[in-house]
Known about the structure:
single chain
Amino acid sequence: MRFVSSALLLAVAVSAADNGDKGRPSLKNALYKNPKASVDARVADLLSRMTIEEKASQLLQGDIRNWMNETTGVLNQTGLEWSTRYRGNSFYVGVPVPNDWLSEHIKKAQDYIQNQTYLGIPAFVQTEGIHGFLAHNATIFNSPIAHACSWNPALVEDMAVAIAKEARAVGVNQLFAPVADLGRELRHGRVEETYGEDGLLAGELALAYVKGAQSASVSAMVKHFAAFGSTEQGLNTGPVHGGEREMRTTYLPPYKRAIIDGGAFSIMTAYHSYDGIPAVSDPHLLTDILRDEWRYKYFTMTDAGASDRLCKEFKMCAANPMDKTAIVQYILPAGGDVEMGGGSYSFQEIPTLVSSGKIKEKLVDTAVSRVLKAKFELGLFETPFPGLPPDEANNVIHAAEHVALAQRLDEESIVLLENHNTLLPLRKDAAVAVIGPMAHGFMNYGDYVIVNSSTRGVTPLDGIKAVGQGKVTYAQGCERWSTSQAGFAEAIAAAEAADVAVVVVGTWSRDQNELWQGLNATTGEHVDVNSLDLVGAQEPLVRAIVATGKPTVVVFSSGKPITAPWISENAAALVQQFYPSEQGGAALASVLFGDVNPSGKLAVSFPRYVGDLPVFYDHLNSGRSANPDAGMGYENGSLVFGHQYVLGDPRPLYPFGYGLSYSTFEYSDVAADRRSVNTKDTVTISVTVKNTSDKDGQEVVQLYVKDLIASVVVPSIQLKAFEKVILKAGESKRVGLKVRVQDLGVWNARMKYVVESGDFLFLVGASSTDFKGNVTITLK
């Protein structure tokens, strides 16, 4: 989503909204003002009192910049009155100004609404929050793709509580998060914003976020509904190809888990089209499924400028001038409720369209009722402004416990990919050469951070210096965006003088200002790639350091998988740290030196080459073979020809669920509490896991299922449950993973969800390819 600053030009000064309401009935005893009345009764009472103009206002988003000067902080009262009258649903506040300005202007707006407008309907106050409250000095957590590698929903829920508390401290009551999209198209720039490739894992983490945020009385807005991210050629906002079975089997489950099971108060629809139907105006998705099947009661909102795409990009109506009537007629009847800013604000035409008979007021009433229901249930009418005085707010924002949580989540998200000859953990007295463009000089955060965020935080060099007790030196080696090798000599000399080299390379994104200014980046919204290789001189730098003969630890600091098989084979150790938190360097150092035992597992598969895509683990039956006839081209120029592929391997280099530890774990005694089941049963698959090492550690126990005979083509295997288990050295635990038999169904040839009789093979293991035991269950 992109919001651009806009200057509001008003031809006529608008007087206080209440001035035009003289003669309307007194609201002294209005039922909607009674917090003891039922929500449905309050909604009905308030709706009955609203004019069509007031209803339309509740379906349009405003912006704090309509009344707050970004440079001076001065209030434009006329702008506030205008925005409240015509764009009263909400206002966006994700702008880089001092936090006390935000709080002051949020309070002024809510006070004006309560005291100077007839109905006093409080506004949603909205901003970003996928890995931190988008404001100065707010705690920055690592990116969602990293959260997913922690496989720890409890930590993600704690993070969401922290983000919500920081946001609420200045008056924000709605966050544009979590992202329930799947990261299955790795060329797409927004992989970093997802919880990975699997619907069950993504759903559990998105659910955790919703529960956490809303427990702190801040609304979550689940996005981008639905199936956004798997676009044609990996291009942002491009079309997504697929059928309804794929939508229901693969893409919808994580949204449903967050939206329905989590009780999310709002949903953001998406930019793309799916099978030729724009998500923003898809009646089957937004009404048949979301409302009629799932019984969702709250509201949906377009993404920024997404409504205009119906005319401009999709060519479904005239764009010059914009056919606003057509836009409203596409979106509102389909089940789209609120229009976000960033476009032509077509929903402002609703009063005219109702009076001319082009849309029915009943449609408008339905959308407004959904908005009001969310506002009542969130408690906005009782607490329009939840912000704290500046001194108190400053104690909540960037609180010490939030920073500590950011480091812990970061530590649990780091994935150890290779550890040849058990080089790691490093000795603390070792002389370490820290090398690479991502090692120091800026914080390599993902997108959706506030301006200048890259200037604060703990870099890898900072972290290693703080933990290591030996000599630590630094050489940049190369710029991230350059092919120049001018800095190689210094880096090589540093490595040769050290006991071990730590080389940090990867991808990079930008903060919310830089990202839209056209500065170079290799990931982020609208930043898509046709190669997953390291850019510029980064891999040559790694090769040069490895060539010194000194043990070399390579750290990928990135927002998506990197294709570098040579590094996997030749570096002494390889660590994946997806875009870090502000404590990223401290988290990395704690893992490198062994203060923390790595426990992260990949939430997304790593291909060997971009041409292998897609490589997600849950491919359909008849997809890639477990043992393909793979060819190979070697560094020395020799070629070994195969067929799948001629000179390559379609299997992932690192599969979903993979990750090493400094501990070793043994699995045994896989069993089921019942071998014959019916559709109403829940089956428990148990396994004994033992830490066979002398180091305490954590293991993610993963349970997959294979439907042995199905009436349609289904995924080869699917993750059905997982648990992260803490095991002391030598300790054993019996782990039980529960699966509802009802969740083993398929969407059959008639597109009906059925649980078919037959055998189901349950596989327990440490990744999607490393199975330690299995058991078969029969559904009669």
